[in-house]
Design a protein that fits this description.
Blueprint: H1 3-18, E1 34-39, E2 53-58, E3 61-67, E4 73-75, E5 81-82, H2 85-97, E6 99-103, E7 127-133, E8 136-148, E9 155-160, E10 167-171, E11 196-202, E12 209-212, E13 222-223, H3 239-242, E14 252-255, E15 265-271, E16 275-284, E17 287-296, H4 313-322, H5 326-337, E18 340-344, H6 346-351, H7 367-370
Antiparallel strand pairs: 1-6, 2-3, 2-7, 3-4, 4-5, 6-10, 7-8, 8-9, 9-10, 11-12, 11-15, 12-13, 14-18, 15-16, 16-17, 17-18
Amino acid sequence: MKSKHLFILSVVTVAVAGAAIYSVHMQNENTGAVQEARPLFPDLKSQINNVDAITVQNHDGMFTVQRNADGSWVVPTKYDYPANFSAVKKVVVGIADMKTVEAKTDDPKLFGDLGLLDPTADGAKSTLVTLKSDGKAVASILFGERKYAPGATSSRIYVRKPGGGRAWRVDDAPDVDADVKKWMVTDTVALSRERVKDVEVSGPNRPTLTVYRDSKDEKNFKVRDMPKGVKLEHPSAPNAVAGALSFISFDDVKPAGDVDFSKAEKDRFRTFDGLQVTSYVVKSGMDNWLKLEAEALPGATAPEASDTADKSAKDAEAKKAKKPDIPAEAKAINARVSAWAYKVPDYKASDLTKRITDLLEKPKKDESKSAKPSPSGT
């Protein structure tokens, strides 16, 4: 027997001897023998490149990720928003590589103990994944409870094919996320504060706020046209405005044309190397929607033709790294984000709609006026 299987046997032995609490209790079950690992879907590897859709279902609902004719993967229920190919590959290849390690129960009454009830059943904790090709299922598997044995570094999970049959324990199965957001491309804009030269925040029925630096060496941003007689809450307070696009998370998407941004609050970020990114934020009901666009300003840096004509390709790459191609960067940003409106959390909407009053020192209370008068005679 191979060393891998000897290791598995040793883990099972230790678990039985010293960690019985980890074991799943299954009455009247005569299975549980460790066996030679075998592929759960022996023919799937030869069909991997034919898989063009993945359906994920749990007790809360179902969604599909599918491949378009051009080879790109999208989420149809999210207006064909791009899917994360890494997530797709992880699940498809992971299921193809999945091997059975231990036979478990074939009694449907005990499936619930392994988290393997049908997704539609009351209290179900399972996730059903179906890989399809031309509309036909090529593999379908229910993922149940994932656990880590005491002292083990790898996880074990129980699975079974839908429609009955035996449950199996498998090791190192892909971690399938039943949250559709985890299957979506998350790249939008990541504009570090260190690159930013100035930010202008404007909108209807509000004064314009501008924060700026004269050079990249300045640590803190300043407020342009700072009102007299007031102070910043902290010298670094304007930095939060400049860093508002350093990270963006979102909860949902829809086509940008489906949201009215005509009365949006607008932030215009400009960098020292000539990139401009503009954000538009609008409140619709309880939701905050964000739209983004980018452009290269006149004079923006771009690699020169001579940069690629150096003595060696290594030198050329080194020079290109020092001179970012801003027009190409703006084009890439717009290709990702220009078609979309992003539903963002309240904190991000707040970051992008700051007013000068949010940066100023709060007035101190006059304690002498608020103090209660002393009782007479004291």
